[in-house]
Amino acid sequence: MKFFLSVDWGTSAFRVRLIETINKSVLAEIKTDQGIAATFEKWRQTNQPEENRIAFYRSYLFEQVEKIADMFNDSLDNTFIILSGMASSSIGMLELPYKELPFHCDGSDLLLHTIPAIHKNVSYKIVIISGVRSQTDVMRGEETILAGCDVVKDNRQQLFIFPGTHSKHIIINNNIAQNITTFITGELFDLLSNKSILSASLKKNDPGDISNDAYFADGVKKGASTNILNSIFQVRINHLFKTASAQQNYQYLSGLLIGYELKETGKIKPGLITLVGSEALENVYIKALTILGLDDHLVCRNAAEALINGQLKIMQQAGYFL
Fold it and tell me: Which of 26, 42, 85, 197 holds its CA 20 to 30 A away from the CA of 145?
């Protein structure tokens, strides 16, 4: 297969990339803010019968694929379109059952569903990769990214951290994912900083500004060691007593929530920690892990690159790409 279309359809964003299979280079790319949640809401408003849902989602998908085709001067006939993320969820294109834990880190036992499709006389094969569940938690999308991380064979227990709106922590033993834990760190920060009484006490910093790092470090330490409900209110006290600026409070709250997320990591003491995300979030979590003394065995992977690699690997193992 010369190339394939890599789709990451998350809750709040949509991205499609045309990928050259051999060297995994991105030949064309489109990103929009029409994630699964917005698409589902549009679908719900149509009041169409359930059997029309795949066609409704597919119409938006092909709108974007057409744009990719216009950017790329070659035929896309018989191209695979690989969907990861929330496309397989209850609000997605087609709800698929979760793969039960444990699962192999190379993605060889994940669940796939194929939908042949023809659009304007061009044939496609849509492949949806489903998510993973434990008895107490779930994930959709991170399993594909994990497969693309080429997890090293190591006798030590490993922890993979996927920072974000809903941060995921995955425990791995002998290349088998054993446990998932979700932390709503990013969502809680957004709610507190924009919709709570604390919003007037906070102001976002320039990402390159390190002058308030001491407040971030203080937040990380308190998040990992104190009653977080009381520590959060300290943001309000800092504002009332004028003991910290709005920018300093912003860093303090960020550190506080991340420190609380990482609180259990020190107790687990994994032999290797891998951060998988964007560069901006990686840098913040590296700071927090370093403050907590958890950076001795720390490596980083780019989530976008791992997603493409993971989709390709899963397809190859399933016999689609030979």
Answer: 42
